[in-house]
Specification:
The complex is a heterodimer of chains A (about 550) and B (about 240). Chain A is an all-alpha fold and about 550 residues long. Chain A is built from 18 helices and two strands. In chain A, a hairpin with a 7-residue loop joins strand 1 (about 245) and strand 2 (about 255). In chain A, helix 3 (about 75-105) runs antiparallel to helix 4 (about 115-150) and helix 11 (about 345-360) runs antiparallel to helix 13. In chain A, about 55% of the residues are buried. Chain B has about 240 residues and is an all-alpha fold. In chain B, helix 4 (about 55-65) crosses helix 12 (about 215-225). The longest helix of chain B is centred in the first third of the chain and has 20 residues, at about 15-30. The termini of chain B are far apart. Classes of the chains: A mainly alpha (about 550), B mainly alpha (about 240). At the A-B interface, helix 3, helix 4, helix 6, helix 7 and strand 2 of A face helix 1, helix 2, helix 4, helix 5 and helix 8 of B.
Chain lengths: ~550, ~240
């Protein structure tokens, strides 16, 4: 971190690190025990670590120097990609372990922290926020600078954002292991972690706008619209869904202010739009930059990108209620959710089609370049998953699919097939550039990763389709006497082969991701002095 | 012309920010705001009771262990669900639930109507080792639930929920710790006080089989046995619907 900072910035950083350590100390001292005390200790340790790191380098030469305004600030992106891959290992590892426990429940160790119910949110948070979130932040800095042709507005904010964000993720997953949870799906972190994330997010958005204000291009490129929608709407969802009353300021426990049916609606308004604005909008931003860059083709249609952007922003927010078909939610809200879910197919397929049509004239590259193939497969899975999503939102279809593993299969066709694939495509584009190289250190390993990822996704998703449809049919089958044909337990027993298969699919996917992590490490270690001629801000701005 | 407008909008970062906030707010406002006209959305039945302190402690354990990841608490209004689980769930049944635990996945069965379906000893044996009772079960074992229940946080929890509008009165808050103990000791001295504060509907039993110890198992089983019993409104409504021509 410190080589990218001037001596004056290191002093500011040192001050912030002391502040973090004091905050951690205050939390630990107030709470005394429980999750909040442990989290205070984690913040204290992180703060002290940063104090030593920055304090030790306070008077070192600052190679950043006065001419750094003529270069992009890519050190935060490099750190963000490292954290992306680290969280991939944690999140996917936890996912495979809990998947295995469904096939082999005796394998649960007798400790509370390793039980399925506590590890499952470690998997979801680790993947969505750890893996996905770090990738979004890291690539957004990269894309923002290059599409604005300007350096990030200041050198400290990106580090505050990334370190603060990873502290949030760490608080969240360690909290679950200790049994501290709000039990709102995909928003399980407790109140102080939620507040902390709001602070980080405000700094992130301010940095985004300040950098845009310095842009040397008159137009804001489409990728940035998506990144901005991601940051803004996630803030709105996060704040509203997480409003809670702590039992005491000295403890982790809180109660959400929402109850019953209102809570359910707000939860799934949040939950589905976490899919929309975290797992879709941000990643479409990634797609809109890296796909044209890697294929060397401009985006096929500018009009289509406008249509799909506003369609996604406007339609998505309505669809959360399709998670609540046939429940106690008022019928008209369910109907609205279903209707908008079906309409959403138009902007979704406009995006997917625009991406695939962009590859016209570059199909030879898709064949030869595994990195571009990752992005192509991502666009295809995006199209397939959004079609499946609209289909599952239709009320009678949902009566069969809801509560079954079909939903799990749908989610993973989106997260493995679309989100993870586009992340890997972006990583394989950025990492060689960070290392000043033409290609990754082990180009063959990218091919291996690609096929492991595609096969793993297909095995997983097909297993879960079968599982879900089987469950749904078994639950609703009546015999000739008008009695239910199957006990619930029989439907559980029928799942065994599918649960085994999905574990194997996940394992293949994780193996590919591990190869990616090792390949990135080897590439960054084999860095060369970098040629900056074609990749720098348009006008050197005065140092901030 | 629209394209021209957008062409200019792309040059204004704050213009994009405003347009995104506007476009992304409409759906949420239209769908969520009307739900807070609570009288029309949720009719609170006269017989709806709040959870006792022991049951609330059990609900905390249910959330702590992530039970909601595999068990829903929402019977949908579909014939097979009514036949399998019981009357479909009403919004009023979770009106006091902060947060709701409707769930999204049934790796295990729905629990909205599980109260009274199995005996206490069955629940205890099943939680300690599910496969001892149901050989094909894939539920994790929870042997650590036999540890003592920490009741220190209960008065604060009740007070917080009271501030959010739940009908916990000052006596219930002050007596929360004693009432948690009393509910698991059917022959103990605290019964009178417990019934003064919580009425005679909550079950009074040594849920874990041992009246001498107050364990997390007592709390969780008390909670599970309370599910679906806080009001009779759902079964009454279904009965009524069945008798209509």
């Amino acid at each position: 971190m410190h080589p990218s900072l001037t001596n004056a910035e290191r002093q500011i950083g040192l001050g912030l690190a002391v502040g973090l350590a004091l905050l951690g100390l205050a939390m630990a001292a107030m709470a005394r025990d429980g999750a909040m005390a442990v989290h205070g200790a984690i913040a204290l340790a992180l703060g002290l670590g940063l104090v030593f790191r920055l304090g030790g380098a306070l008077y070192d030469a600052a190679p950043a120097g006065p001419d750094r305004a003529a270069r992009y600030d890519d050190a935060p992106t490099r750190f963000g990609i490292t954290m992306t891959l680290a969280w991939a290992m944690i999140g996917m590892g936890a996912g495979i372990w809990v998947a295995a426990l469904l096939y082999w429940p005796e394998g649960t160790p007798p400790w509370p922290a390793t039980s399925f119910g506590r590890l499952r949110p470690v998997h979801t948070t680790g993947i969505i926020f750890g893996f996905g979130g770090n990738a979004l932040i890291a690539t957004s800095f990269w894309v923002l600078q290059r599409t604005a042709r300007a350096r990030l507005a200041d050198a400290i904010s990106p580090w505050v954002v990334l370190i603060g964000y990873n502290l949030f993720c760490t608080w969240a997953v360690t909290g679950y292991l200790m049994g501290s949870t709000q039990s709102k799906e995909y928003a399980e972190a407790e109140w102080y972690a939620d507040l902390w994330l709001v602070v980080v997010w405000v700094i992130y958005f301010a940095l985004y706008l300040r950098t845009l204000a310095r842009r040397a291009e008159p137009h804001i490129y489409v990728a940035n619209w998506y990144y901005m929608a991601f940051i803004l709407v996630v803030a709105m969802l996060h704040i509203v869904n997480n409003i809670a009353l702590p039992v005491s300021l000295a403890g982790a426990k809180s109660y959400t202010v929402w109850a019953g049916v209102q809570d359910a609606m707000i939860q799934w308004w949040y939950g589905h739009n976490a899919v929309a604005f975290f797992l879709t909008a941000g990643f479409l931003g990634m797609l809109y930059y890296f796909l044209p860059v890697r294929s060397g083709r401009p985006i096929w249609s500018y009009r289509l990108s406008i249509l799909s952007f506003w369609g996604i922003v406007f339609f998505y927010i309505w669809v959360g209620s399709h998670h609540l078909h046939y429940t106690a939610l008022p019928y008209w809200v369910q109907t609205l959710g279903m209707t908008f879910s079906v309409m959403l197919l138009v902007p979704s397929w406009a995006s997917a089609g625009n991406a695939i049509a962009t590859l016209n004239g570059a199909w030879g590259r898709v064949r030869d370049d595994a990195t571009l193939r990752f992005m192509f497969v991502a666009a295809v899975f995006y199209g397939l998953s959004t079609f499946e999503g609209s289909f599952l939102a239709i009320r009678p279809v949902n009566s069969l699919s809801h509560y079954t593993d079909w939903t799990v299969g749908h989610v993973h066709s989106g997260t493995l097939g679309w989100v993870a694939m586009i992340i890997f495509g972006a990583i394989y584009t950025i990492v060689p550039q960070l290392a000043g190289r033409e290609a990754m250190a082990w180009p063959k390993a990218v091919e291996w990763h690609f096929w492991l990822a595609v096969l793993g996704t297909l095995v997983y998703v097909i297993a879960m389709w079968n599982a879900g449809i089987t469950q749904g049919l078994m639950w609703r089958t009546y015999d000739a006497n008008g009695a239910l044909s199957y006990s619930f337990l029989q439907s559980v027993q029928a799942m065994a082969p599918y649960y085994l298969l999905r574990t194997i699919g996940g394992l293949m996917f994780l193996t590919g991701a591990a190869i990616c992590a090792l390949n990135c490490r080897a590439t960054l270690r084999a860095a060369t002095a970098r040629d900056l001629r074609n990749d720098r801000p348009l006008a050197a701005q005065p140092a901030e | 012309m629209v394209l021209r407008l957008h062409y200019n909008l792309e040059k204004l970062s704050m213009g994009l920010v405003g347009a995104i906030i506007l476009a992304a707010s409409v759906g949420g406002i239209v769908e969520i705001a009307p739900l807070f006209t609570i009288d029309e959305t949720v009719e609170i039945p006269a017989d709806l009771r709040v959870l006792t302190p022991l049951e609330l402690a059990g609900r905390e354990i249910y959330m702590r262990e992530g039970c909601y990841a595999c068990h829903s608490q929402m019977v949908r209004s579909l014939a097979d669900e009514i036949d399998r689980y019981g009357p479909y769930s009403l919004a009023s049944e979770s009106a006091y639930d902060h947060p709701m635990l409707w769930g999204s996945k049934r790796t295990g069965p729905d629990l909205a109507r599980v109260g009274g379906k199995y005996s206490d000893p069955w629940q205890v044996a099943h939680l300690i080792d599910p496969r001892a009772v149901v050989p094909a079960s894939i539920m994790p074992a929870y042997p650590w639930l036999m540890r003592p229940l920490d009741t220190a946080g209960l008065p604060g929890a009740l007070a917080t929920l009271a501030r959010l509008g739940l009908p916990y009165d000052a006596a219930m808050i002050a007596g929360a710790k004693a009432d948690a103990l009393a509910q698991s000791r059917p022959d103990g001295p605290g019964i009178q006080g417990f019934q003064d504060r919580h009425g005679d509907r909550p079950a009074l039993r040594a849920f874990d089989g041992d009246p001498g110890r107050l364990t997390e198992m007592d709390a969780l089983v008390a909670y599970l046995q309370s599910l679906g019993t806080q009001t009779a409104a759902a079964s009454a409504l279904l009965e009524e619907a069945r008798h209509e021509p």
